Amino acid sequence: MKLEVPSDVAAAPADAEKTSSGLASKVLTAGTGSEKPGAADTVTVHYSGWTTDGKLFDSSVERGQTISFPLNRVIKGWTEGLQLMVAGEKRRFWIPAELAYGENPGGGRPGGMLVFDVELFEFKKAPEPPKTPEDVAAAPADAETTASGLKSRVLQKGTGSKNPSATSLVEVHYSGWTTDGELFDSSVARGESISFPLNGVIKGWTEGVQLMVEGEKRRFWIPADLAYGENPGNGAPGGTLVFDVELLEIK
């Protein structure tokens, strides 16, 4: 399918809506829905993208296949812009460089202002983020403690009878907090469990998940020396970490 270059690709028209970030947009087709997606919701769209000189650089329409993705995993202009839309709506966006890939991004990505036509077909609400544990600051007196200093308590009894080994492949759901209650990672919030070999993760997980059986949910207080250390850098959280882990399956 050959796409026509928008007549207003060079610049947003005077009647375009503008947000405080500099994002401009115009509704091309009114939607049929009433609810709008949130920043963590997963959307299904068709889109086409042009540079302001009219060069088409990407199009799901030309490929004949819609695309789905969480809104917080894309360029800022998309994260902000699609939250303005309802299902069934088609909208044109003029996205400034700072909300896209920058002026000279390299890696084959287009620079400068980008123009996208986006049609929102549907969206799936993200799961509610888990609540901060009431005992996140410190393990309670009745927590189990191992020789390494790992503390834990069972939140939900399991249905299985065997424990994984240090080399087992396990499937889990988990959420992790710093001791001041900041949620830094959660498979629950992503709505997607994760599988990994137990000898490929932090020491506190390798040791702790071996205490569990399938179907069990347990809270761990993992000292820094069994996690990422006190000041790990690279965006990893430091100090004691608190994890709620549900062991879904030993594979």
UniProtKB/TrEMBL annotation:
InterPro entries: PPIase_dom_sf (IPR046357), PPIase_FKBP_dom (IPR001179). Residues 135-147 have a biased composition (Low complexity). Keywords: Isomerase, Rotamase. Residues 40-124, 167-251 form the PPIase FKBP-type domain. It is an enzyme of class 5 (isomerase). Transmembrane segments: none annotated. It comes from the Bacteria. Gene3D superfamilies: 3.10.50.40. Its EC number is 5.2.1.8. One of its GO terms (molecular function) is peptidyl-prolyl cis-trans isomerase activity. Belongs to the FKBP-type PPIase family. This is Peptidyl-prolyl cis-trans isomerase.
